[in-house]
C-alpha cells in the first residue's frame, strides 16, 4: 500500500503547488507547459514504452489528440478551481469524475449496471451538488467561479477517463499512450503560452519553469506510483482504486482545511462525506 499512499501524496501535492502559485507569482500556464516536458521525459526514461502500436493503421489518434488538447486545458481549469473553490472541492470534484466514466462504461462500452453501482452514482452526483453549493453570501463573495470551475474539472476529467478507455480498447499500452499524450499536450500547452506572449499577456520566467519541473515530478509521481500499486496488488484492483480515490479526497480535505484554512459549510462537508461513501460503493459493487 506504500505505493498507493505515495500516489495520493503526489496527487494532493499537485493541488498544493497550484494553490501556492499565485502567492509566489508563478505563471500557472507556463508551469503547466513545463510540467509536460518533465512528465514526457520521465515517461520515456522510467517506463521505456514501445511506440510501435502507435504506427499501426488502427491507432486511436483521434482519441489521443483529444487527450492532448484536453489535458493542458483541464489542468488550467483545475488550477482555477483550486484558486477559487479550494483544494477540498477541487480534489473531490476530480475524483468524482469517475461517475462520468462509469456512465460511459454502461452506455458506450456495454458494461452491466448493478443496483449498487447505480446507487453509488446517484450518491456521487448528490455529493458533487453538495460540494459546489454555496450560500447567497458565498456566491456574492466569489461569483460563479466557486462552483463553475469544480464542475469543469468534474466534466473534463470524466471525458479524459472516457478517452483513456477508448485508447486502451484499441490495444495501445499505457506507457505508449502516456508518451503520445504528454507530447501532444506539451505542444498544445506551449502553443497557448506563445499566443499569450505574442499578445503581451505574459513573459517567460525561470521561476515559473522551475515550478513546472516540480509540478511535472508530482504529476508523473502520481501516475507512476499508482501503476506500481496495481502491480504490487494485482489481485486487488478495487482496493487500489478505492484507496487512491478515498485517500486523495481525505488528504485533500485535511490539507485544505488545516493548512490553507479553507472554510466549508456543513452542506459542503456532508458532500465530502458522501463522496467518500460513493467511491466505496462503486469500488465494492
From TrEMBL:
It comes from the Bacteria. It is a multi-pass membrane protein. Its main location: membrane. It is found in: Membrane. The keyword Membrane applies. InterPro entries: AA-Vitamin_Transporters, EamA_dom, EmrE-like. SUPFAM superfamilies: Multidrug resistance efflux transporter EmrE. Belongs to the EamA transporter family. PANTHER family: EAMA DOMAIN-CONTAINING PROTEIN, INNER MEMBRANE TRANSPORTER. This is EamA domain-containing protein. It comes from Rhodanobacter panaciterrae.
